[in-house]
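The protein record quoted for completeness.
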Amino acid sequence: MQDSLVEYGARRVIITITAILCALLEIVDSTIVNVALNEMKGNLGATLSEVGWVITAYAIGNVIIVPMTSWLSQQFGRRNYFAASIIIFTIFSFLCGNATNIWELVFFRLMQGIGEEPFW
């Protein structure tokens, strides 16, 4: 017999809060990048078209990983896949903040997009 996927009590609250915080992290990250495009141009010495790749790379990462979400969650388990996504997203968020040139930032954003938390 298969265990129920429904959680109750404190565990349900913890799962809900975790999912909400991860969603907020992703929304804030996307908003910050859109607001900071001019600062990225100046601080990284990039052109507008180069800075545009920062947003495009994240979208490409999403386009790669989203169709694979169901398969990956079946292969590794929903909990493990979700945890790995959060870890990848967080690590590459840190690396994005420490990028020293525009192409490092573009690569880190691509990887960050791949690590986007799957919400299903």
About this structure: Residues 10-35 form the longest helix (26 residues). The chain is about 80% helix and 0% strand. Helices lie at 10-35, 37-44, 48-65, 69-76, 78-97, 102-114.
